[in-house]
């Protein structure tokens, strides 16, 4: 059972945005501090990646653990109300992510995903960025 009334829950959910999120801003600041320059939300690319480094042919998605179903993460919870609605929504999100990733790879891009929980831990984020740019 939801602890918040439906009207308040609807208002909370309506405020959630898909760009310039907290985790995305953390990743962008960390990349910028490393001297990396990038483009944001290129709509001409499949999935509208959060961060695009054209010279490196690299795109970075910053995914929320809840919305994009980070496997094994404690942030990957499922609401108790309307479980069928949420299952369908989450399945569609994951399928859309997979389709965008495949299209980007086919177009010659390297695709990286940084999860919200990784972005919020400075050491983990630093290790992810090190690995990401050692490959480039």
Short descriptors:
12% strand, four-stranded mixed β-sheet, alpha+beta, 6 helices, Endonuclease, Chain A, 136 residues
Give a verbal description of the structure.
InterPro entries: DNA_mismatch_endonuc_vsr, Restrct_endonuc-II-like. Belongs to the vsr family. Keywords: DNA damage, DNA repair, Endonuclease, Hydrolase, Nuclease. Its EC number is 3.1.-.-. The protein has a single domain, classed as Endonuclease, Chain A, CATH 3.40.960.10. With 136 residues, it is an alpha+beta fold. The chain has a four-stranded mixed β-sheet with strand order 1-2-3-4, with helices on both faces. The mean pLDDT is 91. Helix content is 50%, strand content 12%. Strand 2 and strand 3 (58-63) form a beta hairpin.
Topology:
Blueprint: H1 6-14, H2 22-33, E1 39-40, E2 51-53, E3 58-63, H3 65-68, H4 83-106, E4 110-115, H5 116-120, H6 122-135
Parallel strand pairs: 3-4
Antiparallel strand pairs: 1-2, 2-3
The third-level CATH topology is Endonuclease, Chain A
Number of helices: 6
Q: Give the fraction of residues assigned to helices.
A: 40-55%
Strand order of the largest sheet: 1-2-3-4
Low-confidence stretches: none
Largest sheet: 4 strands, mixed
Can you tell me the number of structural domains?
1
Q: Quote the distance from N terminus to C terminus.
A: 48 Å
GO molecular function, one term: hydrolase activity
Function: May nick specific sequences that contain T:G mispairs resulting from m5C-deamination.
Family: Belongs to the vsr family.
Protein name: Very short patch repair endonuclease
